[in-house]
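Reviewers of the previous submission asked for a worked example of the structure-prediction workflow described in the proposal, so we include one complete record here. The input consisted solely of the amino acid sequence. No template or homolog information was supplied to the procedure at any stage.
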Amino acid sequence: MSTPSWRLPLSAPPRVQNIGVTLSVGASPPRSYHRLGFWSLHLYRWRGTVSVDGTVVPVLPGHAGICPIAETVAYRFDTQERHLYAHFHVQADAEPVAMPALIDCGEHFERFHGLLHGAIGWPQSAPAQASARLWDVLWQLYR
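From that input alone, the workflow returned the following C-alpha cells.
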C-alpha cells in the first residue's frame, strides 16, 4: 500500500486548536470521528491504521501522521499506547506542500515528541507560541 500525501497549506503559520495526549485502546473496535473541521498531527507509539474518508493509512511506532480536514476519520488500534496530537487550522490561501500522510521520524521522533509535549498548555496561555512551535515541527517533518 502506498502512502498518500495531502496538500497542506504551510506557507503561513497554522492556528493551533489543541495539543494533547490520548490513549489508544488496543484490539478495540475502530474509533470514528465525523466532520472534523481541522487538520491534525499525531506522533505515534502504537500500531494500527487510520482511515481518512476511506483512504487507509498505516500507523507505525516512531512515525508522525498527518490528517487533513475530513468528513470521517476512523482509527483501528492494534496496541495500547498513549500518543501525542495537535489539532490545527490552516490559512486556506497559503501555498500548499505535498505532506506525506505518514512520516518515519527515525532518530528525531523523541525530539519532535518533546517539542510538542512541551507545548501542551500553550494553545490557551500562549497561542502564537503554540502556532510557531507547531509550524516549525511541520516544516521539519516536511523536510
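The chain has a mean pLDDT of 92. We consider this example representative of the routine output the project will generate in years two and three.
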